[in-house]
Specification:
3 helices, disordered C terminus, C2_domain_sf, 4-stranded antiparallel beta sheet, alpha+beta
Length: 161
């Protein structure tokens, strides 16, 4: 199994099942990779189509096979509601080094609950990824997702001709 760093770009979600009946839900995501857990910001009032555009960095060690995204609805009065989860197998990003943004199914009790869009980059330990610790990457997304879209499609454009 590979060791290194996994960079996760949490872009957005759509078609989520709304857990709030009187107002728009306030979704956030808990990302976990084995024992590491990170949490996105709350997309306040964004309901079933939240946008995050946030970067997260995980240290990958032996035996890591999947990234789990648990989507929650932040509630001020009661306990946060579980919306659904997506489990992303990591073998393809370990082999390719990069998986462009794509949608993954969000499931709850074996039922489809919408989808979450994520981009993945893996930098092997001892490779050329030692200069990045994710500090700047997490804060440099002020330009919205336009920059990421260009990067994602750049590879496709070159390979199609």
């Amino acid at each position: 199994m590979p060791k290194g760093t996994l960079e996760v770009l949490l872009v957005c979600a759509k078609g989520l099942q709304d857990t709030d009946f009187l107002s728009n839900m306030d979704p956030y995501v808990v990302l976990s990779c084995r024992t590491q857990e990170k949490r996105s910001s709350v997309a306040s009032g964004q309901g079933t189509t939240p946008n995050w555009n946030e970067n997260f960095v995980f240290t990958i060690s032996e035996g890591t096979t999947a990234l789990k995204l648990k989507i929650m609805d932040s509630d001020t009065v009661s306990q946060d509601d579980f919306v659904g989860e997506a489990i992303i197998p990591l073998h393809s990003v370990f082999e390719a080094g990069n998986v462009p943004q794509q949608a993954y199914n969000v499931v709850k009790d074996k039922k489809f609950q919408g989808e979450v869009r994520v981009g993945l980059t893996f930098k092997p330990e001892g490779g050329h990824g030692h200069h990045s610790h994710g500090r700047a990457a997490g804060e440099s997304h002020s330009g919205g997702d336009r920059g990421y879209g260009g990067e994602s499609y750049g590879g496709w454009k070159e390979s199609s001709y």
